[in-house]
Amino acid sequence: MSARILVVDDNPLNVKLLAAKLAHDYYIVSSATDGAEALAKIAAEKPDIVLLDVMMPVMDGFEACRRIKADPATTHIPVVMVTALSDVADRVKGLEAGADDFLTKPINDLALMARVRSLLRLKMIMDEWRLREATSRQFLQGVLDGDNDAAARNGYIVLLEDGGPEREFFVRTLARLEARVTLTATVEEAVASAQAGACDLVIASLNLAGEDGLRICPLLRTNEITRQLPVLLVANETEVARVAKGLDLGANDYLLRPVDANEVIARTRTQLRQRRHYQRMRDNYESSMALALVDPLTGAFNRRYLEAHGPKLLARCVADGKPLSLLMLDIDHFKQVNDRHGHAAGDAVLREMVGRVMMGLRPFDMVARMGGEEFAIVMPETELGAAEAIAQRLCERIKQTPMTWSDKAPPLGVTVSIGVAAVRAAGVESMDQILARADEALYRAKNAGRNCVMTETAEAARA
To answer: Which of 37, 128, 161, 373 is catalytic?
Structure first.
C-alpha cells in the first residue's frame, strides 16, 4: 500500500531516521521543520499521514495538530504525534488536539509501521465515502445532513475483560461518557453482543485467562454487521508485537497498561466521534442514492452511477500516482437459466452472485451492474496482476458452490467469465477506454470457452 507521509521535526537526524524506515517500505516521504511549514506542505502535497513532533520552534505540534483538524480540507488526514514526552497528560493533550495516535521516542519500528498501515486502511475507507457523498450531491443537488459531532457520548460499548479490578475500572471510567456498557468475558460473547445491538465500540483485553483476545479482530472484520466497528485493544507494555498484529488484523487503536482514566476517555471519545462521522456519511449516502443509483434487484450500483463516479475514482488515483484496475464480469449462459427455470431463478442467481462478489472485495471497491448479467468492478489502488488474482478467486468461488434459488428445486451451478484491464501509468486515458479494454478481455474469455479470466493484451494496453 503506497502512500505519501509528511515527517515534521526540527531535528534533521530524527527526520533522516524516520524517512529511512518509511522508505524501506516504499512510502514517499517529505519533511518539514516546524508547524507552520508543515501546514504549508500539507496544503500543497496532501499527504496521507502526518508524523508530527511536539517540541518545535515557531509552532509546536499540539497547535499544528489543532489547525490540521480544524480545517475541513485536512481534518481527515491522520496525525501521529511523535515525541520524547512520555507523561500521560501529554498523550491526552495530543489526543484532545485531534491526534490519531501518540508514539513515544525511541520509536518501536514494529509499532510505528503497524500504526501507519492501520491508519492508511482507515483513511482509504473514509476517502471513498467522502467521494461517494460528493457524487450523491452531484445527482440530487440537495444539502445532506450535517456532521453532528455531539456524539462522543452516550455510546454503546462492548467490553471484553474476564474479571478483576480492571473490569470495574473501565466501567467507572466509561460512565463519565454516559456510555452503556455490556460486559463480556469471552471472545464469542463479545462478538455476539457486538452483532446483536447497535454497537459503537469494542474495547478488548488481550490478556484473557482462557483464550487469545486477538481472535476478536478477524471475527469482527469478517462479519458484515461489524466489519467497520471500531476496536480498541488493551495490552501490557511488553506486548508491542501483539498490538502490532492486532492493528494489522483490523484494530483501530490501543491502550498500554498501566491504563490512565483520562487516556481511556480521550481514546474512547476519538473512536466514538469517528464512528459517528462514518455512520453519518454512510447513512446520508445510502438514503440519498438508493433509489436513483442502486440496482434494486442486486444491490450493486447501476451504470449511471459508474459513469458519474468512475471518472472521479480514476482522477484521484492518477493524481496520487496510484494504480486502478477494472474487471468486467459476465454470467455464463445466463439466458439458459431464465429459459429453463424462469425469471425468479435468474433474479436469485443475480442477487447471490453479487453477494459473493462483494464478500470477496474491499469496502472501497465498487460493483456496478452494466445491464442484464454483466457487471463492472472498479478496484482503486490495485495493480493489474493483483486484480487478475482476485478475478481468478472470484471465478473459482462462484464455480465451486451452486446457487440456491428455491426450497423445492436443486441448486444451480453457475460460472462467470471475467476480463481485466488497468489504468496506464501515464494516466492519459478515460474510464471509458479502460472499460473498453476490460470488455475486450471479457470477449476473449468467452471465446476461450468461458468460466475463465483474461487480462488485456499488451497491444490493447499500448493502443
So the answer is: 373
